[in-house]
């Protein structure tokens, strides 16, 4: 599996702290979908960097990138067991709209899709 294949113009933003250490990243890509223009494909922060606003800044950077490309909506898949992730996206205004079962590492997990029909509010976050 290629994380950043050229399909759908993927991109990535890296968060770096004041010491120059990489503390997280967010990746996005375009979607061929009737409902959403883009997907927040991945968001990861080191444990010690959580709760400091970096996640919001990364999501804002993804949303700004989408709007600069003329893409006004986005979605993200979150594992249902990831309660902190679900709460994070809900606090950022994401609305749950779809569920699926997915196999990850040989285990069946349930995912929830959160979506934003208008990402302009996210561009002001952070």
Automatic annotation (TrEMBL):
The N-acetyltransferase domain is annotated at 1-115
Q: Does the keyword ATP-binding apply?
A: no
A GO molecular function held by the record: acyltransferase activity, transferring groups other than amino-acyl groups
Organism (species)? Oceanobacillus oncorhynchi
Name of the protein in question: Mycothiol acetyltransferase
Gene for this protein? mshD_3
Lineage top rank: taxon: Bacteria
Q: Extract the InterPro entries matched here.
A: Acyl_CoA_acyltransferase, GNAT_dom
Keywords, A to Z?
A: Transferase
